[in-house]
Amino acid sequence: MKKLLLIICILFSITLNAQTDFSFGPKIGYKSNDYNFPLGVSLKNRGNLTLGAYGRFMFNNLVIQPELMYNYITIDYYKCTGLVTIKKNHSFALPVYLGYQFINRDNFNMRATAGPIVHFNIDDFIESMYPQLNYRFMNLGAALNLGVDIYRFTIDLGYSLGFTNVFHNIDNPNIRQNSLTFTVGYRFGK
Question: How far apart are CA 35 and CA 76, in angstroms?
Fold first, then answer.
């Protein structure tokens, strides 16, 4: 019994010594998707909005930051003959960033992170002239992020590379979703 009590006391003291800080908050910003199509078809973004929330766990200077972001994008769909249609896309992005905070001051922090990202598309992209343009529900990728905290505000610049095909039933398997994201947020907590 004494050995068990000693082990519990040691584990408790190790837990107290681990310096874990947690912060969270809302984010809003701009997101731009890039698709590369063959056969003279292209998608152009117009009106892009992303908003959501993040949580950040700090272990000394190591960072774990999951996010859940809602994306609203208006897409102009072009063929060689010109503008065919305008579509709206609603989606969610779930990145989990792992990284290092290399500047750690009271009112200024800077970090670099990377990790996996999953995109969930809510809408279908159906067009009668090109019916194979239907979004897959889920796309996988990798995301890179550079972030700055100034007082309680956080600014993030991220880029994600798509690993999986964005559309169903399309001949070219190399149509992937690459995204550039710029967000501004507010930080609650430490």
Answer: 12
Q: Please tell me what DSSP assigns to residue 135.
A: B
pTM, to two decimals: 0.78
Read off the tokens for 15: 């837990």
Low-confidence ranges of the chain (pLDDT < 50): 4, 15-17, 128-129
Largest CA-CA distance found in the chain, in angstroms, rounded = 82
Contacts (Cβ under 8 Å, ≥6 apart) of 22: 55, 56, 57, 58, 189, 190
Sign of the C-alpha dihedral, residues 142, 161, 29, 138? negative
151 φ/ψ angles, rounded to the nearest 5 degrees: 55, -115
**43: Cβ contacts below 8 Å, ≥ 6 apart:** 33, 35, 37, 75, 76, 77, 78
Cα atoms found within 13 Å of the Cα of residue 84, Cβ hemisphere only: 19
Q: Which residue has tokens 């500047």?
A: 103
Tell me if 151 sits within 8 A of 185, measured CB to CB.
Answer: no
Instruction: Give per-residue pLDDT as tens, 34-78.
Output: 665 555 556 666 668 999 999 999 998 999 999 999 998 877 666
